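Re: beginner question about structure tokens

> Can someone show what the tokenized structure looks like for a real chain? I only ever see the sequence side.

Sure, here's an example I had lying around. Input first:
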Amino acid sequence: MSKYEAIRQSAYEANRQLPKLGLVLFTFGNVSAADREQGVFAIKPSGVPYNQLSPQNMVIVDFEGNTVEGNFRPSSDTKTHAVLYKHWGNIGGIAHTHSTYGTAWAQAQRAIPIYGTTHADHCTKDIPCAAPMDDLMIQGNYEHQTGFQIMACLQEKGMSYEEMEMVLVGSHAPFTWGKTAEKAVYNSAVLEEVARMAYLTEQINPEVARLKSALIQKHHERKHGKDAYYGQ
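And the corresponding structure tokens:
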């Protein structure tokens, strides 16, 4: 049994969820799963259709972005994943999609406003949008710089990666993360649905106000607070 079998299986299963959830078209996206003790992560091979994936063709990469094991080139976004794993010690999975509504908000360079309790069930603030990357960063190590672009966005907004597990990269698309690859994919699906709801809300009422703070706190704390009572 390979010492990387567990994260290969986790990454494979998480990647297979993306098309099932309607979050990707063709090969537009990737998920990775990390093993903190070994200092590596498994990630989707670049350009391979989801229906052709297997646990064995997941690529093993270290937190510097170097391939450790695998017969395929890793995802073109691998260096972004590596930067986030290296600097954020409590995440175990990262997902990147070009889902329709989330990407539309990213292309519009707008944060997703918190308009309703569905949003508040998962986070208490607007889902932030990082400013588009400047020309020097684009001309440099682009995917590597995307990781720092994401981290800078949260820092500028005064958010921690543990309280806000999703972000839009301006002019690009969403990235999400979590304790596991499964949670990262869950967050991608949540982001897409909240993005869709926010878009429709603004079409119905262009003057809509953000959700009031009492409802934000109530809905978030009943799922995540010390006295949470949602679920079994």
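Each token stands for a local structural state, so reading them left to right follows the chain. The chain has one domain: 5-224.
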